[in-house]
UniProtKB/TrEMBL annotation:
Cellular component terms per the entry's GO annotation: cytosol
One function term, GO molecular function aspect: aspartate kinase activity
Family: Belongs to the aspartokinase family.
Binding residues for ATP: 7-10, 177-178, 183, 188, 213-214
EC numbers on record: 2.7.2.4
Protein known as: Aspartokinase
Domain ACT: 278-357, 359-422
PANTHER family, alphabetized: ASPARTATE KINASE (PTHR21499), ASPARTOKINASE (PTHR21499:SF3)
Keywords: Amino-acid biosynthesis, ATP-binding, Kinase, Lysine biosynthesis, Nucleotide-binding, Transferase
Ribosomal protein listed as a keyword: no
Entry superkingdom: Bacteria
This protein's pathway: Amino-acid biosynthesis; L-lysine biosynthesis via DAP pathway; (S)-tetrahydrodipicolinate from L-aspartate: step 1/4; Amino-acid biosynthesis; L-methionine biosynthesis via de novo pathway; L-homoserine from L-aspartate: step 1/3; Amino-acid biosynthesis; L-threonine biosynthesis; L-threonine from L-aspartate: step 1/5
Residues annotated to bind substrate: 47, 78
Organism for this UniProt entry: Pseudacidovorax intermedius
Length: 422
């Protein structure tokens, strides 16, 4: 008898009919003898709807008190869907109870709209499971030290599910979603993309951080830290398919890089349009410059990604980096008011029409020439590379946004990702 956590995404919870299907599926797992904890997202569109309402009424400058209310508001989406799922389970003849984050003791820090889970108190859930109940836990939300409701960032129910699985030492955490697994790249961009039966945890972490939206990055970090066995699978298979078949479907995120792993050098191509490039021109080339520029940015809680500093000429250099596109205006504003005047830099220029395309694979560790092959493929397509960043298992390039699809397809083909693995 295993302890299993199921997580259902917003699309899977999108209507009462779909919620009924989720309930039937969960009931099937419970009847097979498993102890079940279920974490649903808000019904699809609900979080956007709520945040849209807030936007209409929002003050000119977002403040911490405003962000607090955003969490108070957005957390209700999950609360509603959790209760609905518990009701649907009861209709299936299954004993079920739902809990909010605070009833469950999901303790977070106080960073509203992107809080981090610090602790989970699973005592109550264990008692319910012992009494034979299915427990529905409201995803996406927690509570800070002072009792304020917090949320975990968009897509945060994934993290709730994994964190609960970690806290309870679940045997497996199954993330049911509207795709049937993790693909070599987004099939909407490359129709020949293939589903991976397995992907290593490290690759998944890179894919998630580089723009693949299948899982929230924090959920993968959590899974890695606590070694939670994680599987991404479709919620759109018929609910009554054979449970043994269902249990091995989708993509398993694995910690062992065993022989059965696909032997490809590159496992996937990730991309992201959510990028913007900022260059600070003519900065004096002396110690402390990077700290001076990026320190101010970090203090404003803005995440910086790819960074390059040019060779200096006449004691001056150019410094470029990328940020999330949504943070572009704020970053430029900050640099102009806080950094330019004290730094003696000449100017700041920005470009929001860029994207980042990355190849990812643990095979890159043991193979040379993978990055150069990437550069060759892009040059053959006439695509100019603006920035490059590498790690042990990935190479990313920043290019003009209009070539994104072309780059993804060309790389997908060049690295044989359209070919079934042996
Ligand atoms: N409902 C939240 C969102 O849309 C959290 C989630 O679905 O994971 O971001
Ligand atoms: Mg999601």
């Amino acid at each position: 008898m295993a302890l299993i956590v199921h997580k259902y995404g917003g699309t899977s919870m999108g209507s009462t009919e779909r919620i009924r299907n989720v309930a039937k599926r969960v009931a099937k797992w419970a009847r097979a003898g498993h102890r079940m904890v279920v974490v649903p997202s808000a019904m699809s569109g609900e979080t956007n709807r709520l945040l849209g309402l807030a936007k209409e009424l929002a003050p000119a400058k977002p403040t911490t008190p405003y962000n607090r209310e955003l969490d108070m508001l957005a957390s209700t989406g999950e609360q509603a869907s959790s209760a609905l799922l518990a009701i649907a389970l009861q209709s299936e003849g299954v004993q079920a109870v739902s809990y909010t984050g605070w009833q469950m003791g999901v303790q977070t820090d106080s960073s509203y709209t992107k809080a981090r889970i610090e602790r989970i108190d699973d005592e109550r859930v264990r008692a319910d499971l012992d009494a034979g109940r299915v427990v529905v836990v409201t995803g996406f939300q927690g509570v800070d030290e002072l009792g304020n409701i917090t949320t975990l960032g968009r897509g945060g129910s994934d993290t709730s599910a994994v964190a609960i699985a970690a806290a309870m030492k679940a045997d497996e955490c199954l993330i049911y979603t509207d795709v049937d697994g993790v693909y070599t790249t987004d099939p909407r961009v490359e129709p020949d993309a293939r589903r991976l039966a397995k992907i290593s945890f490290e690759e998944m972490l890179e894919m998630a951080s580089l723009g693949s939206k299948v899982l929230q990055i924090r959920s993968v970090e959590f899974a890695g830290k606590y070694r939670v066995p994680l599987r991404v699978l479709s919620s759109f298979t018929p609910w009554d398919i054979d449970i043994n078949e269902e249990a091995v479907s989708g993509t398993l995120i694995t910690f062992e890089e065993d022989e059965t792993m696909e032997q490809a050098v590159v496992s996937g191509i990730a991309f992201s349009r959510d990028e913007a490039k900022i260059s600070v021109l003519g900065v004096p080339d002396k110690p402390g410059i990077a700290y001076h520029i990026l320190g101010a940015v970090a203090d404003a809680n803005i995440e910086v990604d790819v960074i390059i500093q040019n060779l200096s000429k006449d004691g001056k250099t150019d410094f470029s980096f990328t940020v999330n596109r949504a943070e572009f205006a704020r970053t430029v504003d900050l640099l102009k008011t806080k950094v330019l005047p004290t730094l003696g830099a000449a100017d700041i220029v920005g470009d929001t029409k860029i994207c980042k395309v990355s190849i990812v694979g643990i095979g890159m560790r043991s193979h040379v020439g993978v990055a150069s092959k990437m550069f060759r493929v892009l040059s053959e397509e006439g695509i100019n590379i603006q920035m490059i960043s590498t790690s042990e298992i990935k190479t990313s390039v920043v290019i003009d946004e209009k070539y994104m699809e072309l780059a993804v397809r060309a790389l997908h083909k060049a690295f044989d990702l359209d070919q079934p693995a042996n």
